[in-house]
């Protein structure tokens, strides 16, 4: 098979690595890719939103399967463009990707079909939102309705913070048009857990659990980011939690989308909050999480190409999805200043250390190969250094050992990814 991956981040590097393990695949392309993906795939200089050129390339190269990685192209209709050209593609159509593309749509869906989530209100004007905040319960959570690179969520502990949040989202347009509409949501407390799943329109198969660390600084301080590290599995995702979610959340979501005429084929990422009253849905994503993918796929036993094809063909019920009885931890190496201002273009040393060690990975997120053959930093999140171990403690130790192999100017990371979790 010839396979094309759309995207160029750490998630796509992990997907490319996993696809490259498949005996079914003999040629792998990635558009646009990055310096790490370049080592296992032929990278093509086509942007993630350039559907016409992607489709032309897939036709020209006789691509057998295209996998869409990021949220933006999915929400904008990349899958529809490939299907219209008669090409085989993995991911939800535009109508189904709205599950991630609009927070208000997903909240209304959960309300309509009785899927447990936080109470909420939707606002199209800053005046209405500010008026509501005068009497709303505090703390409160404000969310941009549209896509905001995982950063459009404000947890407001005071009324003043909430008012400033409305202004930042709706008046200052910090996340552009994503903040034209906002969701004000009840503040929930508990453990967060991420659960990725494969979906073929009717069947849902759950992957192993994971947990992300969103805040920029140790102790969950600082600004929200796209994710500073993650671990898998989550010790808090118990058999009891799994049983509840399978009964009231996972299948219910897939059935709800089908009932709405928005059949979902692809990945549903369930962001869960384990509250005192039971699991609640925090958010949905319509694609692999980043950096959750970097800890989930190294633990997956199956040939991923077989699973992706089963999702497209509606035969997922025939797949026995299996994961290793181990653990994985990913520590993101970022550029100092991320998620705000940061410099890039600094040479990255030490990457060769990963080539001869089993169970250690350097998934590239923001890297670039210069004409002189040197790999340099090219983003806020630069690398996802991932390691597996027999349990979370060993995986964490291995990951933090591996981050010492890599160096670049202004390297920054959190020191507490998965810390204390191994005792849970």
Give an overview of the whole structure:
The protein is an alpha+beta fold. The chain has four domains: about 1-90, 3-Layer(aba) Sandwich (Rossmann fold); about 125-180, Dna Ligase, domain 1; about 190-320, ATP-grasp fold, B domain (D-amino Acid Aminotransferase, Chain A, domain 1, 2-Layer Sandwich), CATH 3.30.470.20; about 325-424, Phosphoribosylglycinamide synthetase, C-terminal domain (Glycinamide Ribonucleotide Synthetase, Chain A, domain 4, Alpha-Beta Complex). Helix content is about 30%, strand content about 30%. The protein has twelve helices and 22 strands. The strands form five sheets. Strands 10, 11, 14, 15, 16, 17, 18, 21 and 22 form a nine-stranded antiparallel beta sheet that branches. Helix 1 (about 10-20) links the parallel strand 1 (about 1-5) and strand 2 (about 25-30). Helix 7 packs antiparallel against helix 8. The longest helix has 21 residues, at about 240-260. The chain is globular and about 60 Å long. The protein starts with a strand and ends in a 12-residue tail after the last strand. The mean pLDDT is about 95.
Question: What structural keywords apply?
Answer:
22 strands; 424 residues; Rossmann fold; alpha+beta; D-amino Acid Aminotransferase, Chain A, domain 1; five-stranded parallel β-sheet; 12 helices; Dna Ligase, domain 1; manganese; globular; nine-stranded antiparallel β-sheet; ATP-binding; nucleotide-binding
């Amino acid at each position: 098979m010839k396979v094309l991956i759309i995207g160029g981040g750490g998630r796509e590097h992990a997907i490319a690595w996993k696809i490259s393990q498949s005996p079914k695949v003999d040629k792998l392309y990635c558009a646009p890719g990055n310096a790490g993906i370049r080592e296992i795939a032929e990278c093509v200089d086509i942007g993630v939103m350039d559907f016409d050129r992607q489709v032309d390339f897939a036709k020209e190269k006789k691509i057998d399967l295209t996998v869409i990685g990021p949220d933006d192209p999915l929400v904008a209709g990349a899958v529809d463009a490939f299907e219209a050209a008669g090409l085989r593609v993995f991911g939800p159509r535009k109508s189904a990707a709205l599950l991630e593309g609009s927070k208000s749509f997903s909240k209304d869906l959960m309300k309509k079909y009785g899927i447990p989530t936080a109470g909420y209100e939707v606002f199209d004007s800053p005046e209405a939102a500010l008026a509501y905040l005068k009497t709303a319960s505090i703390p409160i959570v404000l969310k941009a309705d549209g896509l905001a690179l995982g950063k459009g969520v404000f947890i407001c502990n005071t009324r003043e913070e909430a008012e400033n949040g409305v202004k930042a989202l709706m008046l200052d347009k910090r996340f552009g048009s994503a903040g034209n509409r906002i969701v004000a949501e009840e503040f929930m407390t508990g453990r967060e857990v991420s659960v990725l799943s494969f979906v073929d329109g009717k069947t849902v198969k759950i992957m192993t659990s994971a947990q992300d660390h969103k805040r920029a600084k140790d102790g969950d301080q600082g600004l929200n980011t796209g994710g500073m590290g993650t671990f898998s599995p989550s010790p808090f995702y118990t058999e009891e939690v799994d049983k509840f979610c399978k009964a009231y959340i996972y299948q219910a979501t897939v059935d709800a989308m089908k009932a709405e005429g928005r059949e979902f084929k692809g990945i549903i990422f369930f962001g869960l909050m384990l509250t005192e009253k039971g699991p609640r849905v925090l958010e949905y994503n319509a694609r692999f999480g980043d950096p959750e993918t970097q800890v989930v796929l190294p633990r997956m036993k199956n040939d991923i190409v077989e699973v992706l094809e089963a999702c497209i063909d509606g035969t997922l019920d025939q797949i026995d999805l299996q994961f290793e009885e181990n653990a994985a931890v990913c520590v993101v190496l970022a550029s100092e200043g991320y998620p705000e201002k940061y410099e890039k273009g600094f040479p990255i040393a030490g990457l060769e250390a990963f080539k001869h060690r089993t169970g250690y990975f350097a998934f590239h997120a923001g890297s670039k190969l210069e004409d002189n053959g040197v790999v340099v930093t090219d983003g806020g999140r630069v690398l996802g250094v991932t390691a597996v171990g027999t349990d979370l403690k060993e995986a964490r130790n291995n990951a933090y050992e591996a981050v010492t192999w890599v160096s670049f100017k202004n390297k920054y990371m959190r020191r507490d990814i998965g810390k204390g979790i191994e005792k849970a």
